[in-house]
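FIELD: query
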Amino acid sequence: MLFRSDGLPPAVVKMRQRLLDAAYSGDLQRLKVVAQSNETPPIFSVNEIGDVVAYLKAQSGDGQGLELLAILTDVLEASWVRLNPGTPQEIYVWPAFAALPLDRLEPGQLVELMKIVTSSDLEEMKGSGHYTFYTVGIGPDGTWHWFKLAD
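FIELD: result
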């Protein structure tokens, strides 16, 4: 695992920006278009979801999917981590906290994490020993692999 704050491959930068643009537009159809640009659709759940827009609306607290678009922006604006470098499984993951031990985070990292989750969510995560909220995975070739709750 390599933790870095810059140096993303151009294809990853492009996909990240496409996701941010779609999310900030507030239009779930734009996010669906990004999802459909992959050869293989990104994963949103461990279960089959059917239509991306309907699924995101159903999972969002506001019923319109806007809450999940906001979460997507928060996650993608956090630090990231590169996992499995140089292997076929290489992936860039947001937020980096998905791969870091929560009990070893510095105060600044905790502030960054609490931009994504509440302090009570963080306490629950500490109980489980790892980050359990939403993550995004993008391959080095720019393929969007997932936007889902951490495993």
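FIELD: remark
The beta strands are 2-4, 80-83, 91-94, 134-138, 144-149.
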